[in-house]
Amino acid sequence: MYSHGRESPGEGTRLGAASCQPKCAYRCSKASRHKMCIRACNTCCRRCACVPPGTSGNYDVCPCYARLKSHGGRRKCP
Cα separation of 1 and 37, whole Å? Predict the structure, then answer.
């Protein structure tokens, strides 16, 4: 089954688009490049419907979020 990059049920906490903004605001609260972090986090949240808890790490909670990479092969999601 092709999933369009979304997590399968049971992987992390599922979020609607409206829930992404407050989750990403907290996730990026300590980022040095806040606006860039917010933009990347919201993109990842919309694709995966999940944001890991805390301000960094915890990628095991949202595997889809952890798998997304930038064009340079680095992690896309903060």
Answer: 31
